[in-house]
Amino acid sequence: MATETERDVVVIFDTTLRDGEQSAGAGLTTSEKLEVAKQLDRLGVDIIEAGFAASSPGDFEAVQTISREVRRPVIASLARCNTGDIDAAWRAIKEAEHPRIHTFISSSDVQMMHQLRKNPEDVMDMAVASVERAKGYCDDVEFSPMDASRTDPEFLFKLVEAAIAAGATTVNIPDTVGYSIPSEFGRRIAEIFERVPNIDQAVISIHCHNDLGLAAANSLAAVQAGARQIEGCINGLGERAGNAALEEVIMAIATRGDYLGVSTNIDTTQIYRTSRMVSDITGFPVQANKAVVGANAFRHASGIHQDGVLKERTTFEIMDPQSVGWPSNELVLGKLSGRAGLRARLEDLGFDLDQQELNTVFADFKELADRKREVNDADLESLMAGQRRMASEPQNYVLEHVQVSSGNHDVPTATVSLTTIDGEKLTDASTGTGPVDAVYKAINRIVDVPNTLTEYSVNAITEGIDAQGSVTIRIERDGEVYVGRGSDTDIIVASAKAYMHALNRLLAMGDKGRVNEPA
Ligand code: KIV
Ligand code: ZN
After folding, report:
1. Would you call 157 helix, strand, or coil by DSSP?
2. Please, is 135 exposed, middle or buried when counting C-beta atoms within 10 Å of its C-beta (0-12, 13-18, 19+)?
3. Comparing 510 with 179, which gets the higher pLDDT?
4. How far is 136 from 133, CA to CA, in rounded Å?
5. pTM, full prediction
6. Are 27 and 54 in contact (CB under 8 A)?
């Protein structure tokens, strides 16, 4: 059995900002993507796929910004096998310290015939020409035969060999539609090692989707067969049922490295914070029983389990919660807590604040503590998320005041005041079918940006009658979706904040929406 220092390193390729962002309704702004990329850097991922540069001006800008500002990891852009995409990918990543072009093309019969409308010879030529073109720009080139797991194996072996001969340094084997079974997928990877003569000149990667809930298992089976790069997304985001959840494969390797014989370069203590940030920014909540990062992942309900854990943690815990950055204790702050106590607690939660940030969050904290007896970690995380939203995006309109009158015999009526970016205060009022509808209509009268509300949900952040409500909404305009989040002890105010957040995002994105459909 390999000792820890002898273990092979599996490199972690994060595609939260590309495949994850592609998933319905994630639509992130450049500043949000940059923030996630910086956190992925702290997490220690080896490669960040920052986007698909040719897909839209917004994606191009995000990939370029991340390339300029996040210097340690490799920064990749996706590109189809055509000149325009590869040139756009290079323009977006060329200032990165470690740039990578990731080019892909369908290789299964069903996709080549019905989607691409090309024959295998054309696909082979396009793949080779694209890898060669990418190689003309940068040394680090990744090639993916899309739908590899449903590709004729003989054709797959030839394609992989040709891509490596053309200069690909990583060849990725995607289970694009999440069709594989772990033993089968592992065998396919082993066959690639046996049948591709120049296989030693490239890293073999895998990219598994979760349609049958097997993405993490397939990824690990591939690692056992020799793959040394895992692609996935934080919280398992991604197309349809998502990609392999990176926190799951990372912790499987950290926990069972003895069996798998591999390790990663990840700082696992950053996992919890990364998961929270991605959930907040994308508006996709993490289910309570989700492995590693769900609220119940380290909660023991049964008396027997609680008894065991109190006597010896490892009786029922295979991972130490602190190893994934779970906050160490549920210290509660209140209205008598001071700045130093708040700073210490926030630092424990992983937030390093300068004096200005501390002052702003302290003011919000005091306001909350006046309305809520106990302010706990979840409240603090939500305050920090609110602060981040305000700081990271241009605030075309700031919510100043909301007042609502409603009741079982009244027509719900709302008055709203907003301040524009130039400091002008605008007030309007409206009636509605309910108080939230009235608030949204009053805001619409001021902002006047037509859109459709496609999702509205409210959750309590903590327990108790004085809990803050967290509202997540999605609005749609011209086929683009914008997420908004807001929290407050008053859910009408939280709803207004969420709507302003989504509208400010929409206004910030302008015409940078998606132009080309990604893979
Ligand atoms: O799922 C897939 O095949 C992809 C490729 C573009 C790698 O996302
Ligand atoms: Zn994918």
Report:
1. helix
2. middle
3. 179
4. 5
5. 0.91
6. no
Atom of ligand 1 nearest to the CA of 104: 6
- Chain centre distance of CA 339: 32
Q: How far apart are the first and last CA of the chain?
A: 40
Within 6 Å (CB) of ligand 1, which residues are found? 19, 78, 104, 144, 146, 172, 174, 176, 207, 209, 519
For 86-138, what is each residue's pLDDT tens digit? Answer: 999 999 999 999 999 999 999 999 999 999 999 999 999 999 999 999 999 99
Determine the Cα–Cα distance for residues 330 and 343; give it in Å rounded to an integer.
15
Chain centroid, CA 52 distance in Å: 15
Number of the ligand closest to the Cα of 106: 1
DSSP codes, 280-346:
HHHT-PPPTT-TTTSTTTT---SHHHHHHHHH-GGGT-SS-GGGGT--S----B-TT--HHHHHHHH
pLDDT interval class at 350 (50, 70, 90): confident
Largest CA distance in the chain: 78
Mean pLDDT of the chain: 93
Q: What does the pLDDT look like over 20-59, one tens digit per residue?
A: 998 766 678 898 999 999 999 999 999 999 999 999 999 9
Scan for tokens 């950053």, then name that residue: 270
Joined tokens for residue 140 = 């680090």
